[in-house]
Design brief:
- With 394 residues, the chain is α/β, with parallel strands linked by helices.
- The chain is built from 13 helices and 21 strands.
- Strands 7-6-15-16-17-14-18-21 form an 8-stranded mixed beta sheet. A 6-stranded mixed beta sheet has the order 9-3-2-13-20-19.
- The protein is globular and about 65 Å long.
- It starts with a strand and ends in a 5-residue tail after the last helix.
Length: 394
């Protein structure tokens, strides 16, 4: 026999989408239970990038989970494109009427959300195993084994699948109702974390004939950097000297040099785009990476997850307040407008900045002309800036 648990909205996944959805629903008086296969420690210590749009920052602050973000996040009013041996700045703040981005790692966002949810008495089931979804059409049930090894059945009015690319939520949708759109890029990012002071006050996106590079920060003493590599690259075969030589070459020009230090983490990040349509079936709704993936060039992954659940939470709130289903019925259509725009922006940034093995000299010169355009034309720069800081939530 399974132990039965009941709630209003069952959430699979304690990532940005699942935790923020639970937080927003709590503020609306709606009960949730969150399941995640990972331990709390694993969630809070897996280091990931975090460039937060103005929308994400505003939502966290307005809903009471942004105090540490305001103290410790790095607010950036612009970023730099480096190409052809020089750097050119995109003035995000000036081009968007005062909007900006904040560098604040994803695992820190998750720490803040978990702490807030637990302080409010939330039911979060870490280390939930064998999760499977039944009867999404009429009586949604999630069956799982809890951390103590007990079989459980979580019954809910609705299920929110916020469990990323490899969770059970995607496959729970009937095959005949879904369409997947995807693109796999022929390169990856080689990422490092290094003990070093910042090399620049703002992020640097570099286009070089050797390939792309990104220079970011995590704290005053820890820097996050990436360079384009083969997806099959083995990080263990790269020495520190070889890594720093490659990074320095890709950002060279005008006397600029990166500040180096001991490297304590190396990894390879795949590059792919993915969208699931629709994002709902019966009483199951997908959000975040369960519904879409973007290459990290546009810094949209976490922000799209937050935008998804902002829309979804409003739909649930209307349903529980008045019984109205319009918000839930229209969830996919509303969310997809932002998702496909972000897909285009992420593809655009990726195609403009990366080296493609089959590119001709024509392609190389076209890239340089495009970078010259977006850094010299105010209207073209504004398009970059508006997409980067994020359009207002609707």
């Amino acid at each position: 026999m399974s132990r039965e648990i009941r709630t209003q909205v069952a959430i699979i996944g304690a990532g940005p989408a699942g935790l923020m959805l639970s937080h927003l629903l709590h503020l609306a008086g709606i009960r949730t239970v969150i399941l995640d296969r990972r331990s709390r420690e694993q969630i809070e210590t897996t280091i990931r990038a975090g460039v937060l749009e103005q929308n994400t920052v505003d939502l966290m602050v307005e809903t009471g989970v942004g105090e540490r973000l305001k103290r410790e996040g790095f607010n950036h009013h612009g970023f730099e494109f480096r190409f052809a041996g020089e750097g050119r700045r995109i003035d995000l703040h000036g081009l968007t009427g005062g909007r900006s981005v904040t560098v604040y790692p994803q695992h820190e966002v998750l720490k803040d959300l978990i702490a807030a949810r637990l302080e409010a008495g939330a039911d979060i089931r870490f280390e939930a195993a064998d999760v499977r979804i039944d009867d999404i059409a009429s009586s949604p049930t999630i069956r799982f084994t809890d951390a103590a090894g007990e079989a459980c059945a979580l019954k809910a009015d609705f299920i929110a699948g916020c469990d990323g690319s490899y969770g059970p939520s995607r496959d729970a949708m009937p095959a005949g109702e879904r369409q997947d759109y995807s693109r796999v890029y022929p390169f990856a990012w080689f990422g490092i974390l290094a003990e070093a002071p910042p090399s620049a006050e703002e992020l640097i996106y570099a286009r070089h004939d050797r390939g792309f590079a990104l220079i970011s920060t995590r704290s005053p003493g820890v820097q996050r950097m990436y360079f384009q590599c083969d997806p099959a690259e083995n990080p263990d075969q790269w020495s520190e000297d070889r890594i720093w030589t490659e990074l320095q070459a890709r950002v060279e020009g005008g006397g600029f040099r990166l500040k180096e230090g001991p490297i304590f983490q190396k990894n390879v990040v795949p590059m792919r785009s993915y969208v699931r349509e629709p994002m709902q079936s019966g009483r199951l709704f997908l959000a975040g990476d369960a519904a879409h993936t973007v290459p990290p060039t546009g810094a949209k992954g976490l922000n799209l997850a937050v935008a998804d659940v902002f829309v979804l939470a409003r739909g649930f709130e209307r349903f529980y307040r008045s019984g109205a289903t319009e918000g839930l019925d229209g969830y996919t259509q509303t969310a997809l407008r932002r998702i496909w725009r972000a897909q285009h922006f992420s593809w655009w940034m990726t195609s403009m900045l990366h080296r493609f093995d089959d590119a001709s000299e024509f392609d190389r010169r076209r890239q340089l002309a495009e970078l010259d355009l977006v850094t010299s034309s105010p209207s073209a720069a504004r398009t970059i800036a508006e997409n980067y800081v994020g359009m207002p939530l609707v």
